[in-house]
Every structure is written in structure tokens, then in C-alpha cells.
Amino acid sequence: MKRSPLVKVAMIVLLSLGSVGIVGGSFFLRKAFSSTSEPGIITDTLRYSEIRNQLWANNDEVKYFPNEISADAKSARIAYYPGFLQGGSYFQLRLKQSPEKIQKLLTQYRKLAKHKYIGGDTNDHANLPNGVPTTFFYTSDSGTESFPPTYEILVLNAQDRGSPGFKWNHGDSYGVAIDSAASEIVYWAERW
Questions:
Q1: CA dihedral 113, 118, 119, 122 (to 10 degrees)
Q2: How far apart are alpha carbons 72 and 69 in whole angstroms?
Q3: Which positions, given as ranges, span the membrane (predicted)?
Q4: Closest CA relative to residue 145, chosen from 186, 180, 106, 111
Q5: Is residue 31's pLDDT more than 50?
Q6: Cβ distance 62 to 92 under 8 Å?
């Protein structure tokens, strides 16, 4: 049986449209499901108490964080990422305080610190002799991931949870980064 050219063209058009529909539909379905399952970074300071008290699993890592963002704190910024699949999680709070309060906090945390660094980020710190991973500057105004040299990074604790031959493959660390000149403190906790 011979088909007319019009029927052939109609079949080609229908098959093409069907293929485009299947590919396009699967793309949109994948987008819809992947965007709801992968968590985003939370920067809303109104969620600070919820994150500190409920969402962050290890209270020891955030016990140095303030219970709440006080009214006298200026320029408060947070960055919270709960982690996804094998990816790590982090929580940071950046505050501007009075110079007197910053000096008091700096004195207090210097006494508790197990490691001290000037500026840099987790990669810089971990690659120093006897260095430990710290954090990136997630709450930076400029989007840079490294702390400027005006910041003193004080590691209150860091635990290597890696396996032999893969030092620091998994672990956690927490502490504070303080810029005395800017009267700022960054509380941080990180797990990977």
C-alpha cells in the first residue's frame, strides 16, 4: 500500500513533535524535582534562632554563637547551608559590635583557641604545617571566600573524621574570626 506524500509529511511532523514533547517534558520534570530536593543557602537573619537551636545538629559546635541576634548588633549577616548528599554543611553569623565588646571577645576566644591564623580560608589553613581546616568567608560583603589579613581566625575545635591516607576527608571545625579594626566578629561552624 502506497502512502501519499501528505500522510508521510504529517507522520514525520507528529513523530517530531512527540519526540520534542518527551524530551522537553522530561527536562521540565527533572528541573521541578531537582530544584525542590537540593537545599539552598539561607541568608535570612530572621531564621537565625531556628537554625542555631533546631537545624544545626551538634550543639557543641554552636554553643559559642549568641543565643539570639541582639538589638545592639549591627550589620548582622548569616549564611547557612544544610549540606546535600556527600556535600558539607556550614553556618556563619557575622556581627558588628562595639570596639569594647570586640576586644573582650577577642581576649576571651584567644584563650580558648586551639589554632590561630591571620586571614585566609580553609584551604590556606589546612595546608600549613599542623594546620586544620577552618571555613570560607561566606558572609563577606564582596563575595570573596577568603578572610582579609585584618581578621584573626581562632579555631575553638577541629576534628579529623577521615580515614588513614585521607586526612581531613571528613571532619568538622568551629570557631570565630575577629576583625578588631572593623569591630566585627564571625562565628562559624563547618562539617564536611
A1: -50
A2: 8
A3: 6-29
A4: 186
A5: no
A6: no
Query: What per-residue confidence (pLDDT) applies to 119?
Result: 98
Task: Convert the pLDDT of each residue in 139-162 to its tens digit.
Answer: 999 888 999 999 999 999 999 988
Break the chain into its structural domains and give their ranges: 1-37, 45-191
Would you state the cell numbers that stand for residue 112, as one nine-digit string? 580558648
Do residues 183 and 96 make contact, with C-beta atoms less than 8 angstroms apart?
yes
More reliable by pLDDT, 86 or 164 = 164
Question: Nearest CA to 177 among 101, 130, 120, 131?
Answer: 120
The C-alpha atoms of residue 83 and residue 88 are separated, in whole angstroms, by 5
pLDDT, tens digit, 9 for 90 and up, residues 159-184 = 998 888 788 888 999 999 999 999 99
Which residue bears the cell 577552618? 134
